[in-house]
Design brief:
alpha/beta; twelve-stranded mixed β-sheet; six-stranded parallel β-sheet; 17 helices; 18 strands; about 40% helix
């Protein structure tokens, strides 16, 4: 698990390292340059044929760039640097790096001919960029983007807002971004994540401040070790039982996808029209089509986790089914994954909000989120993290706001951004699969010795879902993959 920071947090961490830990700014700059050079050199195909240009601004990002140019040159890689901006506006650290580069006779260019170079390094603006890129800087970045060279960004591509990932006028399009100490939010959200290319987080000696919490994180492959072992003496009931309130006439597929993804002992409460197709598609599942108080209560007592909503519909019968189970689950605090039409019903029944709390995981896409919170879709897209955090706090539930970068937030201020997954997952049924994965992950921890917070388990489910989507994309391609392909690769990720 890695922390994700805003520009303000990064500035505070940097300041603390210099002022409290006593590591000077030039030392940090040198470490940043060394790490970047290591990443660049690893990717060079033929060192003798390489020609690298480092384009430097006048802020500290430019100082990193000057140090990178010097270190590459000293390693025997032909490297030049270009200064974008007036030297008199340089920070003290960058002016010092320029003096050092001149001492070591690193060649400088004053007129750009970018076709000469095999690699271009962007060190114009860092995470502190606060205004749109215009004028000569916009022209420079546009020219750099048109070059055929391999492109590397230092810390963050110039022109990307480090908090939102938005393009501020124009932004550098990197093949590789070497970012320092922590991943920045703008390298998680799109288009910043796309402009960053391959993103590598490097350790340069800046660490968390003791006693000060960073609330945003992302999971990584190492975190799959959190998945608990299956106890050897368990039986089919030990590993969790999922009840799905899902499916309406003509909407059997959503119930199937969610149930298949849960990979657990599953009972589906659905309409009679779905019985034969579901029993055919998923013989492992138990199907119940009756709806009465006694049988409902027996199913509720039987299950460990409920999924309410996939393909459910919003008619009177669907509303009755959803409300009964949502209300009863609230009384006994049984975990609920509320998805799809369950969310649509919640958005038009204000009195249902009393059924929502810490035991509930809400999984809206942006359209459903708009209906839930009353915000316009565009405004939600402008502030995904804040929208998820606000609704989690208001509802008391865990909010999984689904997007290209899914945000998982709880009422206590903890938040995760998901960096697995791909555009091929933007396909019908992918959200239904996620609801089943979330239920399955919840069940895995029923008998686990180590427990985790609901928001972390939800984030883990989203991450696993994305990794399965990545494997599917590698195998069948993003254009042709379906939600069923994601399910096919879930066992491989869990293995």
């Amino acid at each position: 698990m890695r922390e994700i920071v805003t520009a303000v947090e990064m500035k505070e961490l940097d300041h603390n390292t210099i002022q409290k830990a006593g590591i000077s700014s030039p030392v940090l700059m040198e470490r940043a340059a060394l790490k970047t050079v290591e990443e660049i050199v690893q990717r060079l195909k033929n060192k003798e044929k390489e020609k690298i240009l480092v384009v430097c601004g006048t802020g500290n990002n430019g100082g990193d760039g000057l140090a990178i140019a010097r270190l590459l040159q000293l390693r025997g890689v032909r490297t030049w640097y270009y200064i974008a901006g007036k030297e008199e506006k340089m920070t003290a650290e960058t002016a010092g790096q320029l003096k050092t580069a001149e001492y070591y006779q690193v060649p400088r260019v004053h007129n750009l001919d970018l076709d000469e170079y095999t690699t271009i390094v962007d060190a114009i603006f860092g995470v502190g960029l606060s205004r749109p890129v215009e004028g000569k800087y916009a022209e420079l970045i546009s020219t750099m983007n048109r070059a055929s060279a391999y492109k590397v960004a230092v810390d963050i591509p110039s022109g990307i807002d480090s908090d939102t990932g938005f393009e501020k006028g124009i932004a550098f399009r990197a093949d590789l971004t070497v970012t320092f100490a922590f991943r920045k939010r703008g390298l998680c959200f799109y288009p910043g994540r796309m402009y960053g290319g391959e993103i590598v987080v490097t350790d340069i000696g800046i660490y968390s401040i003791p006693g000060k919490k960073i609330c945003m994180h992302h999971l990584e492959r190492e975190d799959l070790k959190m998945l608990p072992e299956r106890v050897p003496y368990g039986n089919k009931g030990t590993f969790g039982k999922v009840l799905l309130i899902a499916g309406s006439e003509g909407m059997c597929g959503a119930a199937y996808l969610s149930a298949a993804a849960a990979l657990k002992m599953v009972r589906i409460q659905t309409v009679e029209a779905n019985r034969i197709p579901l029993q055919t598609l998923l013989p492992e599942a138990m199907i119940t089509c009756d709806f009465d108080e006694k049988k409902n209560q027996a199913m509720l007592d039987w299950c460990d986790v409920l999924v309410i909503g996939p393909g459910l519909g919003t008619g009177a019968q669907s509303r009755e089914r959803a409300q009964w189970f949502l209300a009863k689950a609230a009384e006994c605090k049984k975990t609920v994954i509320l998805d799809a039409d369950g969310l649509n019903l919640l958005s038009v029944h204000d009195n249902w909000k009393c059924f929502i709390g810490e035991h509930v995981i809400l999984t809206p896409h942006i359209g459903e989120m708009s209906r839930l919170c009353g915000k316009e879709i565009g405004k939600i897209q402008d502030c995904l993290a804040q929208t998820a955090a606000d609704y989690a706090k208001e509802s008391g539930a865990v909010c999984v706001l689904k997007d290209a970068c899914t945000v998982v937030a709880d009422a206590f201020g903890d938040m995760y951004l998901n960096i697995s997954g791909n555009a091929g997952m933007a396909t019908a049924g992918s959200g239904d699969v996620l609801s089943g994965v979330l239920a399955g992950i919840q069940c895995m921890y029923l008998v686990a010795e180590k427990k985790f917070s609901p928001v972390m388990l939800a984030a883990l489910g989203v991450y696993v879902h994305g990794l399965a989507g990545d494997l599917a994309a590698e195998t069948v391609g993003q254009r042709g993959m379906t939600a069923g392909d994601i399910i096919c690769f879930l066992p491989e990720i869990l293995r």
